[in-house]
Amino acid sequence: MAKYYLLDTGSKMTSFAIALDKHLKEGGDHVILYLTDAEGLLCLEEITEDEFLDHYTKKTNENGKA
After folding, report:
1. Cα 33 to Cα 5: distance, rounded to the nearest angstrom
2. pLDDT in tens, 7-50
3. CA 45/CA 4 separation, integer angstroms
4. What pLDDT is recorded for position 4?
5. Less packed terminus of the chain by CB within 10 Å, N or C?
6. Which helix (H) or strand (E) holds 30?
7. Reading across the β-sheet that carries 42-47, which strands appear in turn?
8. What whole-number distance in Å separates Cα of residue 64 and Cα of residue 16?
9. Which DSSP category does 13 fall into?
10. Residues contacting 24, CB < 8 A, separation 6+
């Protein structure tokens, strides 16, 4: 069964985030990737399918949050 994730990454961690994103997607999971201004940040949060779908249906502001 597919899982759903939010992946936040800073500019110094993008290569790790891309590798993690690829790994998760190869396993059939779904990922929303955010580039943040915290250079060394790499944060992965598992979310529900409804939260994942809400990301695409709600009107969001510049940082992707409702």
Report:
1. 8
2. 999 999 999 999 999 999 999 999 999 999 999 999 999 999 99
3. 8
4. 97
5. N
6. strand 30-35
7. 30-35, 4-9, 42-47
8. 21
9. G
10. 3, 5, 7, 31
CB atoms within 10 A of CB 48: 10
How many residues belong to the chain? 66
CA–CA dist 39, 43 (Å, integer) = 12
3-class state of residue 7 by DSSP:
strand
Rg from Cα positions in the chain = 12
Q: Give the span between the Cα atoms of 15 and 19, in whole angstroms.
A: 6
pLDDT of residue 14: 96
3-state secondary structure of 16: helix
User: How far is the C-alpha of 41 from the C-alpha of 30, rounded, in Å?
Assistant: 20
Task: Return the number of other C-beta atoms located less than 10 Å from residue 65's C-beta.
Answer: 9
